[in-house]
Amino acid sequence: MNALDIITAGPLTSVQDFGRFGAQRYGLTPSGAMDRLSLAAANALVGRPLSAPAIEIGPTKTVFVARGGPLCVALTGALRFARIGGDACPLYRTFTLRDGDTLTLDAARKGVFSYLAVAGDLTGEATFGSFSVNARAGLGSPYPRPLRSSDRLAFENVTSLPDRSMIPPVFGEGYIRVVPGPQHDEFGKSAEIFCNSLWRISPTSDRMGYRLEGPVLTHAGNFNIVSDGTVDGSIQVAGGQPIVLMKDRGTTGGYPKIATIISADLGRFAQTRPRHTLRFVAIDVAAAQQEARAFHALLQSLPDRIRNSA
């Protein structure tokens, strides 16, 4: 059977797809890829459904070895050097791993997450409709945890493809766009401070939440509210500092939420490296919905952006 052996992997490397849906009312978080656009691009390049499971690779050095036979793969997302032995492997282009080939991904130079997709069916069993790993909940397949040395990912129905490439798709630039959160009105002047300030991503951030470092925000209720629902991109404020809830968030929270990152910008936000800075800009819900439709259209157009390499 064709397989990838994991030789070296960091704590943020795991199997992810678009996530699991329809069960948040039971406390089941969606999880899924931190950057859906990059995942979809990798899958499109190897002829897989856009939402299919692939390997989400964190910013540290990662090494794989191919076993059993050729695997057509594609790498997208964070900018990093990749090589098979001494031969460079460009991003957003398919390449073939043969039995015994070592694929080495150096630490990311820009961005956080990369995606390695394979032209074949990952062997495993979906849990609640998804392969996505949520280590805190013990969910995911074929391992319900981040990947580590000695793990093996097996693939069935492997196909070969001609060399294919894609210009890296981009959606949005500049400020990260947000809509007002459910407790926005209770932040008073702090709501203006939030959008007029420079924020830094804390090194303590992870797939559950990105902590923001910046000015202290105040809330009329002293940050105590009755727990209510959260969504991907909810920005809750605990003790004066914002936390952006990410893919492995809880489904409810007891801290006030000042804003929500629009779904179309969440992947771009997720690729912001620790200690890097960013700003937010508020838009209305109608504009956010328009951006969501445009983002969906971009996803659906990815197969048409592929070109066979000469």
Automatic annotation (TrEMBL):
Domain of life: Bacteria
Keywords: ATP-binding, Hydrolase, Nucleotide-binding
Domain Carboxyltransferase: 25-298
Pfam families: CT_A_B
The protein, known as: Carboxyltransferase domain-containing protein
